[in-house]
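Honest question from a wet-lab person: if I give you the sequences of every part of a complex, can you actually get the arrangement of the whole thing, not just the pieces? Trying it with mine:
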Amino acid sequence: MLENILRFTRELKKNNVEITTGRVIDTLKALTFIDFSRRDDFYFTLRCNLISSVEDYNLFTKIYLEFFCGRKEFKEMEHPFPIVVPDKTKSVSLREEIEKKKDEEEDRKGNEEKEGERKTKIASYGIDKVLAAKDLTGMVQDELPAIERGIRKLTHRLATRISRRKQPFSKGKILDVRRTLRASLRYGGDPVELMMKRKKIKKTRLVTILDISGSMEIYSRFFLLFAYSLQKELKNIETFVFSMALTRITELLRSKKFDDILERLSRVSLGWSGGTDIGGALMAFNHHYASMFLRPKTIVIIVSDGWDRGDAQLLDWQMKKLKLNAHKIIWLNPLLGSPGYQPICRGMSTCIPYIDYFLPVHNLESLIYLGDHIGYLMSA
Amino acid sequence: MLNSIEAVQKEMEKFQYIVDRPLATIIYLAISLEKPLLLEGEAGVGKTDVAKVLAQVMDTKLIRLQCYEGLDVNTAVYEWNYPKQMLRIKLEEGKTGDKDELEGLIFSGRYLIKRPLLQAIQEDLSKPSVLLIDEIDRADEEFEAFLLELLSDFQITIPELGTLKAKKRPYVILTSNRTRELHDALKRRCLYHWIPYPSLEKELRIVSVKIPGIKGTLAEQVCRFMQLLREEDIYKRPGIAETLDWAVALLHLDREELDRQTVIDTMGCILKYREDLDKISRERLDNLLAEVFGEEEP
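Yes, you can. This is the full assembly:
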């Protein structure tokens, strides 16, 4: 039995579930309290000791079924989420379209002169300018490290530029009663020294809402790296992802290595049912998080191609609400990298009136350009 | 007394809390292993009630700490009763006395306000209490780190008094609405369970048990409606708490069955967001009612 459990946990570890020795010991201890010939008790005992996130339930069950019993024998168990298979059909056709446009773009750019300024800037990142201009969907495996290095360098520079600006120090205006009384003991109870409360300025400066649905797949990976690196450098940045439902991943980005994050996101059933609901995601943000994170100077970045399956009226309301509370809204659309793209699809056109900056995000160059904008907005 | 999974189910049911086997297993293990229990789930599925009912079952005190952003050690653990201390100092003013003695006096147990976490540690009952740390996801990282320390050693250090160790470790239950990821270290300390929305049978049982006066037909219609509603594309799915509220409201209105107008009038019991109310009453209501009554859809 002991050996079986150990092998099972090793199997879980192979699938990126975090198992510590402590957990294994606790699992074994727990098993002494139950009648483990009862299949269901055995399953739930293992699960509550080894798994700490509902998103891992599906994976756990799958491995459990494979390891402990033939599938046919196992009775149906209650699952909070059914096992979901991501629907990639839509993204394939869109990708083809983008590929085609990209080829046309390459031809066009070959004949164009780049702005002198842009050239030097890109050179200063130590990246080959052709690589910087290449669309991210066209990346080959061995080009990835260079791009990733570029992104990290970019965020580092951006962070330096932002934090160099002097922050005003607000001398507290609120009396800290506790500390005042404490100090007054020295004077026999007379509050001679007044201790002021230093305001805990926890203002969120940047909020990113990233579309990770099928059509955005490749771009979102790179943008996530951008967000991840930026979060490492700067404080008070919040990151969210959505396809059908919105999830805050700020903490996740902080705690793991980047590859683990991608792995984890791909396993979570955030509604990979092949749809995007931008309106719904923004509504969730406005209801739940806006009051927490939107301050007078907060910038909101929405990264999406605008392909939306949700209610257009809802999207309009939510963009309106968002605009009221955010300082500036930057919308990043990878399709802007394609020449001749017009934002006429219903989702995108609904949002345009509320956007302050409408920028591309299809290659490293566009990320550098974005960095400029952010740097400018946050230093002003 | 709670020496088996079945016992947990039976005892909790005496207090009208229906526990299914998975949850009963976890509760039983938490008690037997003396490990904290972390319950996650949507709002209104009964996470908080687990702690309340458990305290009743074990006939012990429930100590509740409601978490929120900005919750700090002072509000959660202890604070000195400054006004009382000041008064004492004033009283002593005229007298000649040892300043150190005075200091020792005012920093003693009598002048200490014990907040939930300290209460949980200091409770001197014959049985350990139940400590409920509600909605831990609303507190911040700093507080989580502090809590982690506390859950490991069950002791608190107050500079003026020294280290206070728990006489009896309380049973700890943490709840979270999953608005953010909790720290790994905290999760590892606990037994974890996600409480899903109930099945139709379970929800029906809960309603029958908690609202004894309700007619079977109404109860069934209400539950079927709620089950269908949760499948809808709305922002805030209603929990069991809402089901019960609605059922009670309908009972007060002397309804024995659902009808379209009643549902429209009372939908505020189950849907709390304008967008959801609009969406359902505008588009989906007739379809939902048709399914509830078992009619053919047009």
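Two things worth pointing out. The radius of gyration of chain B is 24 Å. Chain B has a mean pLDDT of 88.
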